[in-house]
Amino acid sequence: MKRILILLILSLFVCTLLANDLMKPAQIAEGGYYQGMRFGRRSASRDQDPAPEYFFIQNGNGDNTTYLIDTYYDYMPFSYNGHNLRFQPAISMPYGYAADGMFVSYMCSETSTPSTDRRAFYSYLNPDGTLYYSGASNVYTIDREGFTGLAIDPVTGDPFTVWHSVVEPDNTYDSSMTYELFHASGSSSNWIEPFIIFDNPEMSAPLTGHADDEFIWPQVWIGASPLADHRRVHAYGNNYTGSNYNSLYGYADFNADSLLYSAHLDWTMKTFEYFDYMHYNDIDRINKDLIVSKIDGKVAFFGTAGDSLFAMYSEDYGETFTKYTQQLKQPMDNPTNNITGAPLWENDDGTAAEMYILPSNDMSHYNGVFTDDHTKIQWMTGVNYNSQENIGQGVYWPAYMYPKIFTFDTVTGEFSFYDLDVQDTDPGDDHLAVAYDLNDDGIVDEYDADGWPIVVMSCPSWFFNTEGGWQDAYFHESICKMVANENWVVCVWHDSAKLQAAFYEEPGYDGWVKESEFCIIISDDNGESWSDIRYFNANPNDAIIDSTNHYDGNYAPELEDMIAVDACLGDKLEILSNTPGNYHAKLHFVFMDDNDYGSAAVATPGGGTINGSSLRYAAIDLEFQEPNYTSIHENTITPVAGHLSQNYPNPFNPSTTIAYNMVEAGKVSIEVFNIKGQKVKTLVNEHMTAGNQNVTWDGKDTNNKSVSSGIYFYKMKTGNYVSTKKMILMK
């Protein structure tokens, strides 16, 4: 098989000041294959729930998204790991101020010179999703602050935020922290002066024995404390010197009084022998994040190192940790051309490559969630297909990237995984999917006209171009974010398979240049099984279902004219309704609406220009199937006043029925809109009794004239409930 090498200009070699604190790839991308790729087609669902239905929930101003701020910094504004959108408790104690808002932390450049003025910013959102205030977390200096992390005290409602910057004469990066005394005034504008939590290298040198450590990209969590009437704040940073990233980890106990007196807190600092060995001996990259329980003493680092999964797990509030590892390196057959007999994958000398599936160092921007009564930790990342020759040389083929869900069982100490985008007959078994044999019969599923095995591809990123190639797509421009509430779990990432197909001029994808998609999957059984993937995008071309069936009809008009990327989920999944036949959860997230496709801050060709972007908040209602468990109590709120069902039939001609349920009697309206947002007809506008109802639309407008074929939307409003769904008229 001929290799078509993709020209890769790695950010490692072209970094400017604009990008000199970005994480760097651990391996060199050798190139990628184009021959044999199959774009935009995924394996059929294997006994899965259908893709979840959703609709955008309008904020208190009636808008589908909430504008936060404009910024010229257009790369990962919400940091690599953790959560940057977190929720206050309803009441701030001990003084009883009303809270219940949302804090967002992010990097922001207010001018077109982000190399000097990048700063740590925050936004405070009202409970109804409207913006209260956006401004700097650090009002004292401008130190090119980067990669913020955020946590909120569940008692006081005070937010803690961290970032790194150069603040001392030695010109090393240090990591700083500040917190806001919301509980003292009931307002979100009282940040204390920042203080250094990771003083590099002075703080780490006695622990690691190395005088050049720089622990940056900090993350922060707040959980339970062993001290009465206290909580424990946890923070970690990864080592900027080198590319294997050991960590400095610290924790401190606090209560409302210690915050009130603007204490810098009494920190206990430590490193981990396992991480240090990997880093200082240049063994393997450690990809990881931290998770901390709010209800007990569980703390864990989790992720991958080399060809293994790992967890550093503590049940005593982070004071001692136990290491768990499990190798994940699955042998994979190397099939041959059914005409010439040549191997699909070759070594440099033309011989057949020895192939493996193993964890990837790309697709590492993730967070984790507790599930199953805090007995499991789950996260999403990727695996690569690679040859043993490449592994030995420290190179890889980044095109062969596949997203997975990984699980660490805190009771048994064992790991498991679930295939996501490309699945075989059982995505939850102990065998990673092989993308040319998805029916698991040991035989290649399909060959192309030249006799080469067709390998089904994934593209888990929002960015793709040949100059930056797959490396930038999957390392720099990927996100894998999760949130859970009891047994309900949601996972979100990006996909640009259709965009990639458009670049290679695949038939039927002309309208997909620079158009990526959001991907959402849900689970109602603690992540044991997952739904099919729900895609949604800002591409109006996807509102057309054509004869090739390439378009899935996943256009979200709420994102019209946006380049919506870099999604970061809130740390709370709200249960809107949990009654038989009516299972809905509210997913909160923030994202960047870029003004130009690509990240200028990564400084790679094709990476966009510094012409600004905006940061936005949104929330969607996700419809869950019948859950396997019914005791969902954390973060449960009052059920909504109604429920709108999908019309039937759909597509339809000449008429369709819309069913809806009134949880309680009240005024209800149901209106039909065209794809431009213009109202076509009001179907219902009256007081209705509680119970199941339905209305028929005959495809005519207010003037009783038949409308043309196309996509229409119908919206139901009753009380505080608003729902919009899509329907298709095909004549």
Brief synopsis:
This protein is mostly beta strands.
Number of alpha- plus pi-helical segments: 9
- In terms of per-residue confidence, which ranges show pLDDT below 50 for 5 or more consecutive residues? 1-18, 38-45, 628-640
Which range does the strand content fall in?
A: 35-45%
Structural class: mainly beta
Based on CA inertia axes, which overall geometry fits? globular
For the biggest sheet, the summary is:
6 strands, antiparallel
Rg value? 26 Å
What is the mean pLDDT? 87
In total, how many beta strands? 44
Tell me the helix content: under 10%
- Cα-to-Cα separation, first versus last residue: 47 Å
Report on this model:
With 731 residues, this protein is mostly beta strands. Among the domains are: 77-271, no CATH class; 642-729, Immunoglobulin-like (Sandwich), CATH 2.60.40. Helices cover 7% and strands 39% of the residues. The protein has nine helices and 44 strands. The strands form twelve sheets. Strands 23, 24, 25, 26, 28 and 29 form a six-stranded antiparallel β-sheet that branches. Strands 3, 4, 35, 36 and 37 form a five-stranded antiparallel β-sheet that branches. Strands 5-8-9-10 form a four-stranded antiparallel β-sheet, with no helix packed on it. A hairpin with a 2-residue loop joins strand 35 and strand 36. It is globular, with a radius of gyration of 26 Å. The two termini are 47 Å apart. 53% of the residues are buried. Residues 1-18, 38-45 and 628-640 have low confidence and may be disordered.
